[in-house]
Specification:
Strand order of the largest sheet: 5-6-1-2-3-4-7
Strand content: 15-25%
Largest sheet: 7 strands, mixed
Radius of gyration: 26 Å
Helix content: 25-40%
Order of helices and strands: HHHEEEEEEHE
């Protein structure tokens, strides 16, 4: 209850600050009187200002407040199979040209970083239900045998994404 009140107050302060800033941006600033030559062509100056979008004030950014329980960072998080096998750590996220998250890169195998390799798993094969703190792991719908057979991920080459059984979705990477 207390955290909801704090989140609501913070959101109200951010929205108010954005409104005050927007009002400050649109208020005309006092300017020194222009030299006589510049006073002769006020219409030309108005046309130049209308053409230059950089001089127009930008709208205030939108503000979204996400509760601490509702969103978590995933880079560096441990990944485990549904049988509680250690599958590695998430080290990167792959997005397509539209910015849609398509896959996660997992540093799999090895010991203390020696002998490990990066593999790519389909985003839909990951389960985030039990993730409420940094120490909680993400669950992968694949077992250790399936992941160990996956090809290694290398940047700037076609990405081979390992998905859960029955979820083969070709990815048109040349569009």
């Amino acid at each position: 209850m207390r955290s909801r009140i704090i989140v609501t107050l913070v959101a109200a302060v951010l929205v108010t600050a954005a409104g005050v800033r927007a009002a400050d941006d649109t208020a005309p600033a006092p300017s020194p009187s222009p030299p006589p030559a510049a006073q002769a062509a006020p219409k030309e100056q108005a046309k130049e200002q209308a053409k230059d979008p950089a001089k127009e004030p930008s709208p205030p950014p939108s503000v979204t407040v996400i509760g601490a329980r509702d969103a978590h960072g995933i880079l560096g998080r441990d990944v485990r199979s549904s049988a509680n096998e250690d599958m590695g750590r998430i080290v990167d996220v792959i997005v397509d040209r539209d910015g849609k998250v398509r896959a996660a890169v997992i540093d799999f195998g090895g010991f203390l970083g020696v002998g490990s390799r990066k593999i790519v798993v389909d985003w839909n094969a990951l389960r985030f239900a039990g993730v409420s703190s940094k120490t909680d792991s993400i669950t992968l719908d694949l077992n250790k045998q399936q992941v160990s057979a996956a090809p290694e991920y290398k940047e700037d080459t076609p990405v081979i994404v390992l998905g859960a059984a029955g979820s083969l979705h070709p990815w048109d990477y040349e569009h």
